[in-house]
Amino acid sequence: MNIDEIKTHFPQFEANKELVYLDTAATSLTPQIVIDELHDYYKNFRANVHRGLYKEAEEATKKYEEARRAVADFIGAKEDEIIFCAGATHASNMLFSALADTHRYTEGDEIVTTVMEHHAMLLPLQKIAKEKGMKIKTAPMFEDFSINHLELENLMSTRTKIVAVTLASNVLGTINNDLHAIVEKAHKAGAVVVLDGTAAVGHMKVDVFSLGVDYMFFSGHKMCGPTGIGILFGKRKLLEDLEPSYVGGGMVEDVTEDGATWREAPERFEAGTQHIAGAIALQKAIFYVEHVGLEDIENHCRKLVQYAKNKLEKLEGVTVYTGKPENNIGIVSFTVEGVHPHDVAQIAGKQNVAVRAGHHCALPLHKKLDVPATVRASFYIYNTEKDIDALVACIEEAKKVFQK
Amino acid sequence: MSEEIYKQNIIDHYNHPRNKAKMFEPDIEQVAKNPSCGDSYILYLRVTDETIQDATFSGVGCAISTAVSSMLTEKIKGMSVQDAKKITKDDIFEMLKIEISIGREKCALLLFNALHDALNSLE
Questions:
Q1: Which of A226, A339, B56, B117 could pair with B19 as two cysteines, CB 3.0-4.6 Å apart?
Q2: Can you point out the beta strands (E) in A168-214?
Q3: CATH-assigned architecture of domain B3-120
């Protein structure tokens, strides 16, 4: 990977030549070809999809459906298993409401999840659990910040209806891709397995077919795509029986004055007008990350994690919350003794080093780590070891500012 | 207004916060939390004869929220409830003497909001 060349693909490095961007886990930067694709739609063939019988509408529809195929190929799914959504949070809310409506969960039914889930997974689960009287069981971590698989499997029972796991933690970076035993046991119990792919997709090769999961959601904007576009994948057979939780135009087969019947998936789940430009541009983002190479991206980020971990752990007063670098998606979170994470991030920001401070939408995890907040540095294709050196200098500076 | 946010007085209030102590049987105890930053304080007030006789705080947070907690409790001690209610956001920014970016406004106003909630609860 030629990082210097890659950086020329991202105009934001032109806008701010000093920028050290270590906040991809919040949102990635956008390569020029993705920006061009957004422009192209709005300038040249803006029209709604599926309905118009003129050139622009046909062009938009063709590209929108091509994008769906590209997403399907990208994650090992079939095109009618891909639903365009506004983002991972939208996809997750939509899915869990639909599951609750369709399967009529009852009091005492169970959800099994993990302590490292993002609020986008956890809160919709808590919502349906409250509505239906379901019980949420949470699997803990091992000391190396990986999920305790054995405990997770033990939590499953005949009452388990949903098993919800993140593919990679957005705070710890831990990858949970050893899911075969979990999937097998969940299916035996009659539960569906829902995977949060948001931190992982576009950062490593993800194949839903070989993972065996039933549903997966992710956002486009953490993998070079635009904001406002995300994906819900669902197995064909399951989507056939799933009731839509959002209804409106474009998803009906027939409507009478007092009822309606739904179209097949995926249209059934795409009521209203979607972010058409976003979907089309997401295809370019997929093209781009595949062109760079997912294996190379994974290896590159892993090396940066190793480098960062070594450097940060040598600093006095710094605690790093990350496990084995070989099992990390490219995220290192840490705290600095005597300096609040916000203050570390602000001092770094002054030096054009972009990191994030807070709980990163994972409060239960932070409670487990017993810290109110952490500083998170996340790596992607445009980062180098020099960026980490810049971060280290900021930490030293922060320690100096706050020394007693 | 200084562009440099971590001026000596801010650092001094952070490293050596004034009035940082739990109060025994306060008249008002107001929780101030900003979970997204991990800031969590309690403001304690002793109020008699329409006057704030004593003000302290406990908890943890960033340099800005701690400095405000420290400075604000100093400022309101001995102040009448009516005058304390008149303290504005701008007074807080003025007190800090630094430029507060949009991302840090919540930090700067955490204890300010808690003070107003506390005083309004008196009625």
A1: B56
A2: 192-196
A3: Alpha-Beta Complex (3.90)
